[in-house]
Amino acid sequence: MARILFTVLPLTGHLNPALSLAGELAAEGHEVAFAVHREALGSRMPPGIRVYPLDAEHRPPALGEQARGLESVRLFFEDYMLPLTRQALAPLEAAARDFRPDVMAVDHQMLAGALVARKLGLPWVSLVTTSASIIRLSPVLDAWVAEQYLALQQDCLPPDLVVERPDFSPHAVIVFSIEALMGTARDRIEAPYVFVGPASRPVRPAVAFPWPWLRDDRRLVLVTMGTVSRDRDHRFFEVMMEAFAQLPEVQAVLVAPPSLARKAPDNVLVRDYVPQLDLLNRAAGVICHAGHNTVCEALLRERPLVVAPIRDDQPVIARQVIEAGAGVFMRYGKVTPAAALAAITRLLDDAELAANARRLSRALLAAPGIRGAAGIVSGLAGRGAPCR
Q1: Which of 19, 116, 245, 294 is the most buried (most CB within 10 A)?
Q2: Distance CA 76, CA 72 (A)
Q3: 66 in Cβ contact with 75 (< 8 Å)
Q4: Is residue 386 part of a domain?
Q5: What CATH number should be reported for the domain holding residue 50?
């Protein structure tokens, strides 16, 4: 059996797929450990998993509100990922030397893990949580990113270990998505990709919900703008409510600030937390921010989408959904009630959208999944030199 060391960014969306993969490997008898920022993620770690803290001396940089579009990518590098890499290098190397893993599983944006694996001669896999991360963005931005990677490696590694893309493993790059969603409109960064489909999230806590409110004679639309829906701008949700008020034959659940409940028409329910997977099983369609997890969860259940991206990788994922024929675009910041009404109507009535959602669902179900990803990781054990 292998010893496997995981390391991920201190962000829940990056931790969840790694935990699913670690759980599968542990069930197969492998020994797993995590090198993570305990303050940010410790409460989310299952009991019994060995944790090496990376924040004993330094807290990770704050990841606050960012600019939109490509500018958000630059700020993510400058203000978050690169400082975090430099902070985490020493404690992560110490964790690897103590645990002596046979293989490392490294979030592709947790660059410290990739640098440590190469420095110590350990086989490793990259874990890519969103399909937006493997495409080329623009010649100017791609060149700027390459400069940042070069400067970082020159500071941290011997010259013979410097490579063009230190974030992608030469052994395997596990992508928690499917090629059918990727499309061919943009070039991909060259790497040994394995598309395994989305990782199921760890068991979620039970959330109370007034199920009798749902009516069988009305089609249901779920509106969620991600894990911080309740903190989003009120205007978007107010526009959604105005649009749904004109569709009495439809009902909607909005994951939104509770204060909006008093403005909701009779066919709209406002909740700050919902049992999302259970609602997706009953919904006819979804309106969301094009977050990768929500998109995959909806498509897995054959649900077409209206996508209203806000920032980060969301515009890229939204474009992929639309180009795959399973989604309708909506402008988050400037949507009008008329535009929202048109998008909702198409979401519910367009047979082609529904057919493409079913096609993508079949592709998601056919993906290797977590079991396939676990086989890739465990198969690398024994390929590297012992940790020095």
Answers
A1: 116
A2: 6
A3: yes
A4: no
A5: 3.40.50.2000
Contact indicator for 55, 83 with CB cutoff of 8 Å: no
Residue (of 251, 233, 232) closest to 243 by Cα position: 251
Q: Please report how the helices 351-366 and 337-349 are oriented relative to each other, as an axis angle in degrees rounded to 10.
A: 60
74 shares its domain with 223? no
Beta carbons within 8 Å of 362's beta carbon, 6+ residues apart = none
272 and 230 in contact (C-beta within 8 Å)?
A: yes
* CA separation, residue 167 to residues 45, 112, 173, 194, 235 (Å): 24, 9, 10, 15, 38
What the block records as the tokens of 258 is 């509770």
Residue 3 in tokens: 């010893």
Question: In the block, which residue shows the tokens 């994922």?
Answer: 317
Side-chain half-sphere CA neighbours of 117 within 13 A: 32
Tokens read off for 20: 């699913």
Count of CA atoms in the C-beta half-sphere (13 A) of 240: 33
Hey, CA dihedral for 158, 91, 165, 20, is it positive or negative? positive
pTM of the predicted protein model: 0.85
Torsional sign, CA 359, 361, 366, 369:
positive
Give the count of beta carbons closer than 10 Å to the beta carbon of residue 103: 26
Three state DSSP letters for 189-218 = CCCCEEECCCCCCCCCCCCCCCHHHCCCCC
* Contact call for residues 20 and 201 (beta carbons, < 8 A): yes
Residue 206 located in a structural domain: no
Whether residue 285 contacts residue 348, with contact meaning beta carbons closer than 8 Å, is answered with: yes
Q: Is 335 among the domain residues?
A: yes
Are 60 and 100 contained in the same domain? yes
